[in-house]
Design a protein that fits this description.
The chain is an alpha/beta fold. The chain has two domains: 225 residues, 3-Layer(aba) Sandwich (Rossmann fold), CATH 3.40.50.150; 50 residues, no CATH class. The protein contains twelve helices and twelve strands.
């Protein structure tokens, strides 16, 4: 059975969420992104005939100027990642005072398109206690998108109206049942600890029952395969003398697993590591090898708080700073005590982009695009779970 359904994506960026949703069976009838570098990446892959990007209709425009009636007569889902800088732990945390807060535009898209469902993602800083009231406001706006904020109405006043409506039980012809959860991409087979808030809603009249997919990968299974069975090292053909030592912080956890004989290991597979992600890639320092986006960049140095990612653990979250890439976040700590930057291709592997998906721009610009992206595999897992409810 063909379960493909149409979707429109806002704030597409370099295409991580879009690629994952396409993998899971959704088809984007329109992508909206105004950043010229991200648009160049999407155009490049569409022109190269990438199987997932083929036929994408990109609208390189500010989402605030989009008329949705001009894009599609019918759409099953609205997706996107509203710009996260207002809520980022690395930003100034201005939230609703920040003009980059695009959640009102996400709500407008839902109101005008009336999709069967939506999925929006954002940084975990959205759940900070200092933003609790505003996050509650976002959820209620998505629950009742037709209760529009009036001209010159302050958001706390609008929040009060939404709360009164929510408790009053009055029915409207458009409302959504909304849930949210903080997910760690490493729990779903992404070789990176990356925490993102996903907000999912189904139109109330559909009466769908849905929950977030269960984790498929376990860190305890990784520890078992590394330090008890040794299967991890055997898989990578690492001789015993070259294996890392047991991390002190995991010693008691490993001892417990060993004493339990693995009887209480969670179902699924082990978490994937940086070594897993980079398997098969040539060393970028080997000048005889050529591969798109895989150029070596010298100068990596650790500094306090930025010590790189271990080769034999999930990567630290890749970052994209306001003034370029903070190198300590985007480098590998090699077993011999040296450090080097991830190449663009290695970063794409960590974010589970396909190897044939090419990034446009300089190293810094490409790393910014990747650092802002949703891991493709995580997007595909969530997208597949949603699709099963509406197919």
């Amino acid at each position: 059975m063909n379960r493909q359904r149409s979707s429109i994506e806002l704030f597409t960026g370099a295409g991580g969420l879009a690629l994952g949703l396409e993998q899971s069976g959704w088809h984007h009838s329109a992508l909206i992104e105004r950043d010229e570098h991200a648009c160049s990446t999407i155009h490049l892959n569409e022109s190269l005939g990438h199987p997932l990007a083929k036929g994408w209709r990109l609208f390189p425009d500010d989402v605030r100027s989009i008329r949705y009636s001009d894009l599609s007569d019918h759409v099953n889902m609205v997706a996107g990642g509203p710009p996260c800088q207002p809520f980022s732990l690395g930003g100034k945390h201005r939230a609703y005072q920040d003009k980059r807060d695009m959640f009102p535009e996400a709500v407008r898209a839902v109101r005008e398109l009336r999709p069967e469902c939506f999925v929006f993602e954002n940084v975990k800083g959205l759940l900070r206690q200092s933003f609790a009231s505003y996050f509650h406001y976002i959820i209620l706006q998505l629950t009742y998108p037709i209760i529009v904020r009036q001209h010159d109405e302050e958001w706390p006043s609008h929040l009060s109206r939404l709360e009164r409506h929510h408790t009053g039980g009055e029915e409207h012809d458009l409302s959504y049942r909304v849930v949210y959860r903080l997910l760690d991409a490493a729990d779903y087979g992404v070789p990176q600890h990356r925490h993102r808030v996903f907000i999912v809603g189904f139109r109330s009249d559909l009466q769908k029952q849905w929950s977030f997919p269960d984790p498929t990968h376990s860190y305890d299974r990784l520890l078992w395969d590394q330090w008890i069975s040794g299967a991890y090292w055997d898989e990578h053909r690492i001789a015993r003398k070259n294996r890392a030592v047991i991390p002190e912080r995991y010693a008691s956890r490993i001892a417990r697993l060993k004493s339990d004989f693995g009887l209480f290991l969670p179902p699924g597979e082990r978490c994937r590591t940086v070594r897993d992600a980079l398997a098969g890639l040539p060393d970028p320092r080997d000048k005889t090898e050529t591969m798109p986006n895989h150029e070596f960049r010298d100068g990596a140095r650790p500094y306090p708080g930025h010590t790189g990612s271990s080769l034999d653990a999930p990567s630290k979250a890749l970052k994209a700073g306001d003034h370029g890439v903070p190198g300590g976040e985007n480098m590998i700590a090699l077993p011999d005590g040296t450090y080097r930057y991830y190449t663009v291709r290695e970063s794409a592997r960590v974010q589970t982009f396909p190897d044939d998906y090419v990034f446009s721009g300089s190293w810094t610009e490409a790393m910014r695009q990747i650092g802002n992206a949703v891991p493709v595999r995580l997007a595909a897992t969530v997208g597949d779970s949603i699709l099963k409810q509406v197919a």
